[in-house]
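Re: beginner question about structure tokens

> Can someone show what the tokenized structure looks like for a real chain? I only ever see the sequence side.

Sure, here's an example I had lying around. Input first:
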Amino acid sequence: MSKNNINNTQVYAIFGDPVEHSKSPQMHNSAFEFLNLDAVYKKHHLKDGKKLKEEFLNNLYAGANITVPHKEQAFKQADEVIGIANEIKAANTYIKKDNKVLAYNTDAPGFLKAIESFGNINKVLVIGAGGTAKAISLALKEKGIDVVVVNRSESKLEFFKEKDIKSYSWKDFRLDYFDLVVNSTSAGLKDDKLPMNKSQLENIFLNSSYAFDCIYGKETPFLALAKKEGLETKDGEDMLLFQGVLAFEYFTNTKIDSKTIEIMRKALKEEN
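And the corresponding structure tokens:
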């Protein structure tokens, strides 16, 4: 791995826009501290995703996580893409190895781990069509779970059609029964917006049992509405935790134990 040129400390970062809300630094730093590793993890606000690899290399980062809206750029710019990220065409983890930038996607397995607490899931509706939606829908499909994607516009649905995943624009969407409804969009992150028309969502929730929002650390309007309709709800904290655990293992080339995972979970609950 690349060394920081000042004091041999391994430096990691989270790239995103926005990034100030991110709890990834406290999660990773708590694990570095607990395991007595000479490493630090920080926030890196990046507006222009086209400069991602350049910024990653110029700052001598040993590894990084990439969040909204740069996951597709992370995939495109990597020297080598490993695992399910090739299918998703979006990456959320970078590692520098032998002067190459390697890209992974830990969102997909992180999501599957996060929804285990819901029990048996057979059919899922994913709202949105960005990098997170791609990761989630492919992970579900690989598990043999029936998945449908709905997005405001038709133009972003090409990927899902190519992967043989049922996908619709808002206007073409027909009501159905879903065990789980997932918001993969940023609606509710910085505003009070819903990811879909309220009456449409209410109708969907009438025929559903669970709601999951990839946004974490707050009850979004999406989750509030789902709760009001009697659904069991969950925010994205566990997804963040489990994708972070996998990323941490890539960063450090080690398998971490349950004690370290609990340290990371506890750090996520602390105020930013």
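Each token stands for a local structural state, so reading them left to right follows the chain. Residues 34 and 119 are 32 Å apart (CA to CA).
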